[in-house]
Every structure is written in C-alpha cells, then in structure tokens.
Amino acid sequence: MWNSYKADSLISSVEAVIKDPIRAPSEGKLKVGIDLGTSYTVLVVLDEIGKPLACTLEYAEVIRDGLVVDYLGCCEIVKRLKAEAERSIGREILNAAIAVPPGTSFADASTHRHVVESTGIIVTDVFDEPTAANAVLAICDGVVVDVGGGTTGISVFKAGKVVYVNDEATGGSHMTLVIAGNKGISFESAEKYKKNVLNSEKVFPVIVPVIEKIATIVERHIKNFDVDLLCLVGGTACLNGIESVIEQLTGVRTVKPENPFLVTPLGIAMMMDLRQ
User: Fold this and answer.
1) CB-CB contact of 236 with 148 (8 Å)
2) How many CB atoms lie under 10 A from the CB of residue 3?
C-alpha cells in the first residue's frame, strides 16, 4: 500500500517556491538537484534539512532521449537557472546532484555532468531518474516509472532497495509527433496543442497508442518480478488518464502523485550528498 500524502505535501512545497522563493539562511549547506529533461530543465534548491527554497525551470529542446543534442544551449539554460535561483535565495550555488535515465552510458552521463559544471557548479552525485524519484515517493515494494519527454525509465524496488533498472526511448515527444502527424502541423505547434488543457479530450484518443506502447515497455521489464504497484512520475505522467490505460494493460495497480512533473528534480536534491 502506498500513501501519497507525504509525497504530495513535499511536491506542493516545491510548487510554492516557484512563484515565491525563500531566502536561504546565511549559514548551512544547500541541497541542489538539477534535472536535464527532454522538455524542461529544472533546478531545485533545498536547505540543509530539506525545506524547499527555490525552483527554477525553463522549456527547451536541448535533450533528446536522454542525450544532450545542443550542448551550448543546454549550458546556457543551466547558467540562467542557476543565476535566477541564486538571486532568489541570496546564496551562491556551489554543488549539485544530477540524474540520468537508467542505463545511460558513462560518456553520456559525463556530458550531463560537463553541462552543469560549465556553470561553475561541482556535481557531487549522479543518480538514475526513477531511483531519485523514489526519494520523494518512498515506495518500499513496487515500481517507479519515470515517463519523461523522450524516455520511460523503470526502477523495481524490493524492501526499499533497487533490484532492477532500465530505460527505453518512448515518452512525451513521441506523443507530440503523433499529434503533429494527425493534425498536419509542426512539432512545435503540436507541443503547444498538447499542453493546452482545453484540448485534453481531443488529444487523449490520438495518443493512446503511445501510452499503450509505454505500458508494453513496463510490462516487459517487470515480468520477472512479483509487483502489485506502479507509480508514475515525470512530465508526461501529468496526462489525465494515462494511469488508467497502463493499469488496464499491465494488470498492476497504477498510481501517481498530484504533480508527477516535479518528483524527479525534488528527489535528486533530496538525495544529494552534503559534501560542501
């Protein structure tokens, strides 16, 4: 059984500091998580005891399927988010943790590290995304499925320990491509159309095949494990009804927190080693 109350409370506290950041104490260590996503790059700052102080984010297509495809553009985004967060909290950000999709090669993970360190931040830790998400979810036995813009990452937990991780390239950007083809519009226009809540009922039937593919990916990776809970996180998991389709096809109870988008960046910050 999973109780979402604690996770939702943590996420709500991060949502609050997007608009109303909090000045950091003059002393004490900061915990910073940076999530280089396919659609959004997010930076979360916590104080030493884990209280959210700031959250900065920016949309950009500089990452694709977990790979940095626009290195300089990605560096500039992180630089801007760092500067904005520093202005808000009144402190310099020295260290941060990052996360990558499960199975990311050492070379690709190193590129993510180099992007962040180009801003003067020292990367202290590199986690896989679904495992970082579970710092927020606190699932003891079950599966965390991180459905991002480009990839779907899967982490299986038994007695609170990771026993399996994997990742495949299917996510929100694939849904956008399907919408673009269906409506005969550009990818950029389709992305805006998808995000408009007024279009939700029109969008959902069009992208069901992509959700079904995500469910098939999850089912294939969990078939050797006895699991009775799937928890969805990531920006694409915000889609209304995605959990119902995945539950129907996998036969496993599927849930998600109120705002799946912020779970992974918050978890990265929570897991950060306090070496400063």
Assistant:
1) yes
2) 8
The structure tokens listed for 178 are 């399907």
Q: How far apart are CA 182 and CA 98, in angstroms?
A: 36
Domains in the chain, CATH or no CATH each: 5-133+262-271 (3.30.420.40), 138-261 (3.30.420.40)
pTM for this model (two decimals): 0.89
Radius of gyration over every alpha carbon of the chain, rounded to an integer in angstroms: 18
Cβ neighbours for 78, distance < 8 A, ≥ 6 positions apart: 34, 36, 41, 43, 115, 116, 118, 119, 121
For 154-167, the three-class secondary structure string (H helix, E strand, C coil) is EEEEECCEEEEEEE
Query: Mean pLDDT in each 10-residue stretch from start to end of the chain (276 residues)?
Result: 84 96 94 90 96 94 79 94 98 95 82 95 92 92 91 92 90 92 94 89 93 96 95 92 96 94 95 68
